[in-house]
Amino acid sequence: MLGQVDAVILCGGLGSRLAGIVNDRPKPMAQIDRQPFLDILIDYFSRFGFRRFVLCTGHRSHVIRDYYGRKRNALEFVISDEPSPLGTAGAVRNAEALIRSNPFLVANGDSFCPVDLAGFYDFHSAKQALMSMTVVESEDTRDGGLVTIDDCQRIVGFQEKQSKRRGRYVNAGIYLFQREVFPLIPMGAKYSLEYDLFPKLTSKGGFAFVTSGSLIDIGTPERYESAKDFFYKHSAGCAEDSFAVAPCVRERRN
Questions:
Q1: Which segments of 82-227 are extended strands (E)?
Q2: Model pLDDT for residues 190-223, shown as the tens digit of each residue
Q3: Which residue from 164, 157, 115 is spatially nearest to 106, judged by alpha carbons?
Q4: β-sheet bridge partners, residue 133
Q5: Whole-model pTM?
């Protein structure tokens, strides 16, 4: 079933906080053990059956286009270029004509969370949701979007970039959308999933899929280094199951 679902990955951010150490490529192309972080995401998604990837690019888009244009495997890569920065939701709307499936997956290109994507798809289908979001429970919510859910896992509130609080759910950056969401996003305008679209969806059928996985992002130099350690530790054993988080790494290379 997931082989028929498009995976849309948001790769267009400027990555200004990481610019001191990654300044010649888009942030998702930052190297983790001599491979782009984006390859790790694509490898993980493909293990669940995803085969078609729509890469929403902006800043230094040619790096992604050139790299994935040379790929020769069973996966299909489609590039959606932004004419100007459109924000996370604007990038999705910009790619509408390239997205074939209903529903379709959307994921941030600079973060990773080991989610059971087959279970996520089943959850989304069972809830008959317009949008489903993966969330993790975290004590540190300083740099993440807080999500409030009810007993039925319906999303009833969003708060972006709040001060540190305990026992709240944090947006993990992986979503399933029905195509009916497109009219809610203005065409050609800068528009945010987190600040603009998601607050609209609290009354339109948005649900939260709770996962216990760790949320890893590469948005700052410190987190980038932590991500390198995370993938080294979790891939050194070369687990063969579908939840292995990265290709096998025998030796850490900086």
A1: 104-108, 111-112, 131-138, 146-149, 155-159, 168-177, 206-211, 216-217
A2: 999 999 999 988 888 899 999 988 899 998 889 9
A3: 115
A4: 175, 208
A5: 0.89
**Whole-number Cα distances in Å, 192 to 30, 63, 229:** 23, 24, 31
Comparison of pLDDT for 175 and 17, the residue scoring more: 175
At 88, list the tokens.
Answer: 């996370």
Q: Domain range for residue 63?
A: 2-235
| Strand 7-11 relative to strand 52-57, pairing | parallel
Q: Express as a percent the part of the chain with pLDDT over 70.
A: 85
Q: Note whether residue 172 is domain-resident.
A: yes
Omega prior to 85 cis, within 30 of 0: no
pLDDT digits (tens, 9 = 90+) for 13-51: 766 677 667 777 889 999 998 899 999 999 999 999 999
Q: What is the pLDDT of residue 235?
A: 66
Assigned domain for 248 exists: no
Question: What CATH number did the domain enclosing 231 receive?
Answer: 3.90.550.10
Domain annotation covers residue 202: yes
What proportions of the chain, in percent to the nearest 5, are helix, strand and coil?
Answer: 30, 25, 45
User: What's at 163, amino acid-wise?
Assistant: S
Burial 95-130 (b: 16+ CB within 10 A, else e): beeebebebbbbbbbbbbbbbbbeebbebbeebebb
Our count of domains for the chain comes to: 1
Judge whether 96 lies within some domain: yes
pLDDT tier at 163, thresholds 50, 70, 90: low
